């Protein structure tokens, strides 16, 4: 009951903030309703007063929230300010669509995750783990923008090959492409986390004893998966919620009438009842996913969780192949060379005669839709994109470690259930659009997966036998935290944060594309993607250049992390 109570309090607080959105953004909701329903009607005081009386806005924010809460207890989600129709049928229909798409996407994500971790599972079950895998392939796939992957699949698979439909919803074949576009990045992230945790499970005494006793490798691999699952189940719960409400770009591209696109349209139109209903359903879904992950972890850990008999997972000191260090150096040099070459060019110069020009000596990476040099914009946007993403990642890492260690599960699940786009709309409405507001909006929700990972690892570390032994020897809380708990929690969470740097860059870019972040004509990699997506078939270089830069950034982050990890163990 205490678990549910804390989460319901946070849920009510967030829904109340959403309900106050028009007043927080200093906009007149009556004027918004007038423009939505009667575009040609003049906004006279009498007309606005009539709209306020009709919708109950004349009573102010407390009256609006009270009426909405009273209707909620009676099963009534209110009426749309834009259409005047009941909210419940449309929102529940959108939820059903999103849940169906989430199920397909989750299946694709789990298949890819197991495929990426299969080599480690196979070698570990046979006691043949000799080197640490850097996980570059998973990092590149996790860095792929969902909207870019969706556009490529729609162009090649749907339009060129004609294998699956590119638009619509209702048939099984219409779910394939959007499920792949959403499931591939999510599966790559889950696969990388699983691959990072498996060596620690295979290094435990039970694995050596199982091999010596002749246990089949398949059973050893299954036990290793069960051993690592408790720390990853919270991530799976967060992925479920993210695939349901965060697929705004994919749902829009494929014309899927899901909950994410419905919430975004309501937020842009200031349709408060629809937005409140969407956020409420997303938060309830986050609550259910978090509860299921918590119960699943308890079942998998069993009595060892509270009996102090669960050894902490510690990865063995496996060396990293020299090619990893060399690849990191080469990739870093390549990115620096591209950035320096671009800095020597003017990113704002417009050559109307060279619009969408292919790569040449004058323009090594071609030009964009306005005739601006892609290499110049790539180089000038490097510092803006990389430094901002790294800074936001550092903030989210710190918040994730602190909130996860303090057990802020209610805040974690609530923050994860809110798409970054909705957070950006609220922050931009209060503070105004700009890069700082976009960074604050992304940081406000991006810490949730790191906090969930921290909390899961922290619970396992506290259940280790050496913690009980240290307490018996008189160790204080500070000593336990510095010498036992943090060394087992921080390194995996840091590697997780590094893997999310490209995703944070893309979240910042999506807010910029909506006019809430970096404003044009400033160069920024994610904005370059968004601006040139309509011309991807005619001028693919304008899209491939920033996409390759983001993928290279993700690969470089993982390579550097692996190299540093090996050096510390050496």
N→C terminal distance: 48 Å
Residue ranges: pLDDT <50 for 5 or more in a row?
Answer: none
Gross morphology is globular
Number of helices: 26
What letter string, H or E per element, gives the SSE order? HHHHHHHHHHHHHHHHHHHHHHHHHH
Number of strands: 0
The percent range for strand residues is under 5%
Mean pLDDT level: 78
Cα Rg: 25 Å
* Estimated helix fraction: over 70%
Structure description:
The protein is an all-alpha fold and 570 residues long. Helices cover 73% and strands 0% of the residues. The two termini are 48 Å apart.
List the topology elements:
Layout: H1 2-19, H2 21-24, H3 29-37, H4 45-55, H5 60-73, H6 87-125, H7 136-143, H8 146-160, H9 176-202, H10 205-212, H11 217-245, H12 248-253, H13 259-268, H14 272-301, H15 304-307, H16 322-343, H17 374-406, H18 409-417, H19 420-431, H20 435-446, H21 448-462, H22 465-472, H23 477-499, H24 501-513, H25 525-532, H26 541-569
């Amino acid at each position: 009951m205490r678990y549910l109570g804390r989460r319901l309090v946070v849920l009510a607080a967030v829904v109340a903030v959403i309900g106050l959105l028009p007043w927080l953004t200093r906009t007149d909701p009556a004027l918004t309703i007038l423009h939505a329903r009667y575009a040609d009607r003049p906004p006279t005081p009498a007309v606005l007063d009539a709209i306020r009386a009709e919708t109950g806005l004349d009573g102010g924010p407390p009256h609006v929230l009270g009426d909405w809460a009273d209707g909620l207890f009676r099963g009534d989600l209110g009426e749309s300010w834009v259409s005047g129709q009941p909210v419940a049928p449309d929102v529940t229909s959108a939820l059903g669509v999103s849940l169906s798409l989430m199920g397909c996407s989750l299946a694709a994500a789990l298949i890819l995750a197991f495929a990426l971790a299969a080599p480690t599972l196979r070698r570990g079950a046979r006691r043949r783990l000799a080197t640490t895998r850097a996980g570059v392939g998973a990092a590149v796939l996790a860095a792929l923008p969902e909207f870019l992957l969706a556009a490529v699949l729609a162009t090649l698979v749907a339009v060129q090959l004609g294998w699956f439909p590119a638009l619509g919803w209702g048939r099984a074949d219409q779910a394939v492409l959007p499920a792949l576009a959403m499931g591939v990045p999510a599966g790559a992230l889950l696969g990388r986390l699983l691959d990072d945790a498996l060596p620690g499970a295979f290094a435990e005494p039970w694995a050596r004893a199982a091999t010596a006793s002749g246990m089949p490798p398949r059973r050893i691999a299954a036990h290793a998966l069960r051993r690592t699952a408790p720390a990853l189940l919270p991530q799976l719960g967060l992925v479920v919620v993210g695939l349901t409400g965060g697929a705004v770009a994919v749902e829009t591209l494929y014309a899927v009438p899901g909950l994410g696109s419905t919430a975004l349209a309501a937020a842009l139109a200031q349709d408060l009842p629809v937005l409140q209903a969407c956020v409420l359903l997303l938060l309830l879904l986050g609550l259910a996913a978090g509860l299921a992950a918590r119960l699943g972890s308890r079942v998998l850990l069993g009595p060892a969780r509270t009996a102090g008999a669960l050894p902490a997972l510690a990865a063995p000191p496996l060396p990293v192949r020299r090619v990893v260090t060399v690849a990191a150096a080469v990739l870093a040099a390549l990115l620096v060379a591209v950035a320096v070459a671009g800095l020597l060019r003017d990113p704002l110069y417009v050559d109307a005669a060279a619009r969408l020009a292919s790569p040449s000596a004058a323009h090594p990476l071609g030009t964009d839709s306005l005739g601006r040099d892609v290499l110049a914009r790539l180089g000038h946007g490097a510092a803006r994109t990389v430094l901002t993403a790294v800074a936001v990642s550092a903030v989210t890492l710190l918040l994730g470690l602190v909130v996860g260690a303090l057990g802020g599960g209610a805040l974690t699940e609530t923050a994860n259930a809110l798409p970054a786009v909705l957070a950006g709309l609220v922050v931009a409405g209060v503070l105004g659009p700009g890069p700082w507001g976009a960074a604050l909006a992304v940081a406000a929700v991006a810490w949730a997966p790191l906090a969930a990972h921290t909390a899961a690892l922290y619970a396992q570390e506290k259940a280790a036998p050496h913690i009980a032994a240290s307490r018996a020897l008189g160790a204080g809380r500070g000593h336990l935290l510095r010498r036992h708990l943090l060394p087992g929690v921080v390194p995996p969470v840091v590697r997780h944060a590094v893997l999310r740097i490209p995703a944070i860059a893309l979240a910042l870019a999506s807010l910029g594309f909506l006019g809430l972040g970096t404003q044009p004509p400033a160069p920024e990699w994610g904005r370059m993607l968004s601006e040139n997506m309509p011309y991807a078939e005619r001028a693919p270089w304008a899209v491939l250049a920033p996409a390759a830069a983001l993928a290279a950034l993700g690969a470089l982050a993982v390579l550097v992390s692996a190299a540093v990890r090996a050096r510390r163990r050496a």
